[in-house]
Design brief:
Elements (H helix, E strand, L loop, with lengths): L2 H5 L5 H18 L5 H19 L13 H11 L9 H8 L6 H7 L3 H15 L3 E4 L8 H13 L2 H15 L1 E8 L4 H5 L12 E7 L5 E3 L2 H5 L11 E4 L2 E4 L4 E4 L18 H25 L1 E5 L3 H6 L1 H14 L14 E5 L5 H15 L4 H5 L11 H35 L6 E4 L7 H21 L4 H10 L13 H29 L1
Antiparallel strand pairs: 1-10, 2-3, 2-7, 4-5, 5-6, 8-9
Helix pairs in contact: 2-14, 3-4, 4-5, 6-12, 7-9, 7-12, 7-17, 12-15
C-alpha cells in the first residue's frame, strides 16, 4: 500500500487551509520590508531636496529615471565628493544614514526598546539627587534651602530634567524656555539680563519639541566661518515669538558638521536614527525563535519521483493533507516498502545569537545590556565590571552636560525672583554608586587609623576628630552634638596642664641627677 493511496479518499480542504495559514505566518515574520533597490531613488531624491535648501547649486541636474550609476554619481556630486575614489555602493549606503526627520524619530521612539534606551539613562542619572551648598561667603539659614527644595517639587524639577534629556535623545536636540511673568516678545528678543527678573515673576521652564520651532540666524552666524556662533541660530521662533539664544537652555546629542546642520535643522543626532535598523534586526531575530522552535523538524519521505511527476496536482493535494494531519504528537503512517526520515535543526546557540543582537543595540545606546534588557549578558562573556564603570561615566556626563546648565539657570532665576539674588548656590551630585555596608566599615576603619596616627603626631586632637565624625554622614556618629566653646577651652586647659606637668617632672629628674 502506498502512502498516497492511504490519503486519497480523505477530506483535504481543512488540511490545505492549515498549511496556507502556516505559510502566511512564516511570511509575516520573515519578509524584510526594506526593498533597497526599489527605494533607492526615493532616498537619493530626498537627500537632494535637503541639500537644495542649503546650496541649490550643489544639486546635480539628472533625471531620476537614469541608470543606477548616474544616481550614485549624483549623490557624490551633491556632497561634493565626486573627486574622491569612494565606492559607489558603500557611499550610497552611508548617505542613507542621514537625518530621518522628527516625525519618524517620534514614531520610532514608541517602540519599547528604543523608548527604554532614550528614557532610562535620564532616570538613572537623577535617581540619587543632588545637594545645594552656599559657597559665596553668605550665611544662609537651612530653612531657606528647604524652602527652595519645596519650590523645586512644586515646579516638578526632576520630571523636567528627565524630559530634558530623554527628548534630547529622541530628537537630537532639546530646548528649555524660561517662563517669566510679565515678559513679552520684546523682552525675549533681547539678550538675557538677570536684572530684568522681578519679585515672584519666575514660574519655571517649559520645553518645546523641535518641529514647533524655527531657527533663525543673523548675518554674523551665516557669513563668518571664523565666528564663535557660526551656523548657530541666534534666535528660535515659537508661535511668532523670537527667543534670543541667551534665554534658552539648549542641549544636543552630538554635533554634526557645519555642512549637515541645515539638514538636521541645527540639531544633533537622534538616537532613533542611529538605532532603528539594529533594533529591527534584533527584534526580527527574536521573532525567528518561535518559528524555528515549531519548524525545526524536517521530514523526508522516500517516494517514486516518476509517479509524482506524472500527477503533480494530486501529489501536492495529498502531501498537504498529510502535513495537515501531522504534528509533533501525531502518528505518521507509511507503506511497508516506504522509508521516512526526520532531521532536527539544532537550537543550541540560538539564544546567544539573539542576545548578541540586543547587545549591539545596547552598545549603540551607550548603556550596558544588563541595564537595557535587565537580564544577564550572553555571547560576549563580559564580566560586567567595565560595563558598570562605563555606565556610571555616562550618567555623570549627563549630569554635567545636560542637568548642570539647566539647574544653574533655574536656581539663578529662582533666587533672583524669590530672594532678590541675595546669595548663590552650587549643585553637588550624590555619588552614583553607593558603597555596601562592608565597604563603609572598611572605609571607617581606615579613617580611624589615620585619625590615630595624626593625633599621635599632635597634628589633630579629639575635637577635630569629633567634628569629622559629625560631618561624615556615613560614620555612624553624625548625630553627635559638637563640643561647646566651654568644653573646648576646658579640654585645651587639661592638655596644657598635662604637658606642663610632664615637662616639670622631667626638669625635676634632671635637677636630682645634678
Amino acid at each position: 500500500m502506498n502512502i498516497l493511496d492511504f490519503f486519497r479518499k480523505k477530506p483535504v480542504a481543512k488540511a490545505v487551509e492549515q498549511v496556507k495559514q502556516k505559510e502566511e505566518t512564516r511570511e509575516y515574520f520573515s519578509r524584510h520590508y526594506l526593498e533597497k533597490q526599489k527605494n533607492r531613488k526615493a532616498i537619493i531624491e530626498g537627500i537632494n531636496k535637503d541639500l537644495a535648501r542649503v546650496n541649490p547649486k550643489s544639486v546635480p541636474a539628472f533625471a531620476m529615471d537614469n541608470a543606477i550609476q548616474g544616481q550614485f554619481e549624483g549623490s557624490k556630486n551633491a556632497y561634493r565628493i565626486s573627486s574622491y575614489g569612494a565606492s559607489d555602493e558603500l557611499l550610497c549606503w552611508y548617505i542613507t544614514q542621514s537625518f530621518i526627520g522628527y516625525q519618524a524619530c517620534a514614531l520610532i521612539s514608541q517602540q519599547w526598546l528604543v523608548k527604554k534606551a532614550c528614557v532610562k539613562p535620564a532616570q538613572k542619572a537623577i535617581k540619587k539627587g543632588w545637594k545645594l551648598t552656599v559657597n559665596d561667603g553668605e550665611e544662609v539659614d537651612d530653612k531657606i534651602i528647604k524652602q527652595i527644595q519645596k519650590i523645586d517639587k512644586r515646579m516638578k524639577l526632576k520630571k523636567q530634567l528627565v524630559e530634558f534629556n530623554s527628548k534630547k535623545m529622541v530628537f537630537g536636540i532639546r530646548i528649555a524656555f524660561p517662563v517669566i511673568e510679565g515678559w513679552g516678545p520684546e523682552d525675549y528678543k533681547k539678550p538675557f539680563n538677570i536684572d530684568g527678573i522681578k519679585k515672584g515673576s519666575y514660574k519655571g521652564f517649559t520645553q518645546v519639541d523641535p518641529h514647533w520651532m524655527i531657527p533663525e540666524l543673523d548675518a554674523e552666524a551665516v557669513n563668518n566661518p571664523a565666528s564663535q556662533g557660526f551656523y548657530e541660530p541666534t534666535f528660535w521662533r515659537v508661535n511668532d515669538t523670537l527667543y534670543h539664544k541667551s534665554h534658552l537652555i539648549i542641549v544636543r546629542n552630538g554635533d554634526v558638521a557645519d555642512i549637515l546642520k541645515p539638514t538636521y535643522q541645527y540639531g544633533g543626532l537622534p538616537l532613533p536614527q542611529l538605532i532603528y535598523e539594529r533594533v529591527y534586526a534584533a527584534e526580527r531575530t527574536a521573532n525567528e525563535a518561535p518559528l524555528l522552535a515549531m519548524d525545526k523538524r524536517l521530514t523526508v519521505l522516500h517516494l517514486d519521483l516518476e509517479k509524482v511527476a506524472a500527477n503533480p496536482a494530486t501529489f501536492e493535494e495529498q502531501m498537504a493533507a498529510w502535513a495537515g494531519y501531522r504534528d509533533n504528537f501525531g502518528v505518521k503512517v507509511v507503506g511497508e516498502d516506504e522509508t521516512i526520515e526526520q532531521f532536527d535543526t539544532s537550537l543550541a546557540d540560538l539564544d546567544n545569537v539573539i542576545m548578541t543582537q540586543y547587545q549591539i543595540v545596547a552598545a549603540i545606546a551607550e548603556m550596558p545590556a544588563t541595564e537595557l534588557l535587565e537580564t544577564s549578558p550572553k555571547g560576549f562573556n563580559a564580566t560586567g565590571e567595565f560595563e558598570e564603570n562605563s555606565w556610571y561615566d555616562r550618567l555623570e556626563a549627563i549630569q554635567e552636560d545636560d542637568y548642570d546648565p539647566f539647574l544653574e539657570r533655574h536656581y539663578e532665576l529662582l533666587i533672583k525672583s524669590e530672594f532678590d539674588g541675595a546669595f548663590e548656590v552650587d549643585v553637588t551630585w550624590e555619588p552614583m554608586k553607593s558603597p555596601t555596608p562592608k565597604e563603609l566599615a572598611e572605609i571607617s576603619d581606615l579613617k580611624a587609623r589615620s585619625d590615630t596616627a595624626l593625633a599621635t603626631l599632635g597634628a589633630i586632637d579629639g575635637v577635630e576628630v569629633r567634628d569629622r565624625l559629625i560631618a561624615d554622614e556615613h560614620s555612624g556618629y553624625n548625630g553627635l552634638a559638637p563640643y561647646t566653646d566651654a568644653e573646648v577651652k576646658e579640654m585645651e586647659k587639661e592638655k596644657e596642664d598635662a604637658m606642663n606637668q610632664e615637662n616639670g617632672g622631667n626638669n625635676g629628674d634632671k635637677k636630682e641627677e645634678k
